[in-house]
Amino acid sequence: MTNYKEIPDLNEYPPILKAARDGKLIVFVGAGVSRLMGYSSWKTYADKKVEFLRKNKLVNYYICEKLKSFDPRKTLSLCEIILRENDIPFPDDVVFLRPDRISDCGIYKDLYSFNAVYVTTNYDDCLDKVAEENAMEISPGSQDNPQQNKIIKQKVFFLEEEMLVSKLLEPGNVLHIHGSVKYRGSRIVTVQDYMKRYGRDSKLQTLLEEMFAKFTVLFIGYGLEEYEILDFIVNAAHRGQRIQNEHYYLYSIFSTEKELCELNKKYYHDLNVELIPYLIDKNGYEGLVNVVHNWAQILAPIARNPFFIESKKMIDEVI
Fold first, then answer.
1. Is residue 101 within 8 Å of residue 38, measured between CB atoms?
2. Residue ranges per domain, the chain?
3. pLDDT digit string, tens, across residues 39-61
């Protein structure tokens, strides 16, 4: 039986520590992290689009409520169909993604100290901002120009053609596999978008296969409403080859859900994903902030380890 705690002991998961040391850790960031900053959940995002349809008298109250009852991906797909049939363009997603409030709990800074490559299904740019702050490099001056120059190295990628295996080789990179608020054409929203992006022989398909086969993946910020997305991603990766590495899912539960958690552990075990449960009775979903902060204290020093620094130099030379 699992030993349930508010903050799981990271030292009980040596593969995560080893992956961070070796530059082989992938942190998969879900909407649960963005919600702590005030951004919408996947369902709320879909509901806002449905309300846009009703406000513009494209659906009545009954259809509005029925649309909201569907899986968010189906809801978003139907919204697109209704707009297309009425020849009305949707406003940019930024309108629906913009939070009512911003609550900087520091979780992204802690996450970014994990010495990992960050892969996310989120559109928002919270993680991007931290990555870009850390991407500043100082180049020495030359004889012709003795002044030092500040160079910002690209660390954030969101275009379909940028979903390359090479991006997994440098800790600190951020990959938005479903697109970003920065560019409307990059975002996948409808079922058709998903099918195209995750199609066989696509760049994303190849990326996922390589990621799950050769890296240790840690899912953070995924909840019940995102199970379908999580399953979709994991199963897409499994289409290619036998997965060998160990992978983990940081999983929030109430103490009354331990029995259900044990069942879910068995389900994800078959997908080679181990659940790491943590209790949220006391702090609610904000308990994730404490878990990530605690783990950051363990993982952050790895970046200052001489072995890690030398390994990163070797990676940079390859790239």
1. yes
2. 10-39+102-318, 42-97
3. 878 888 899 999 999 999 999 99
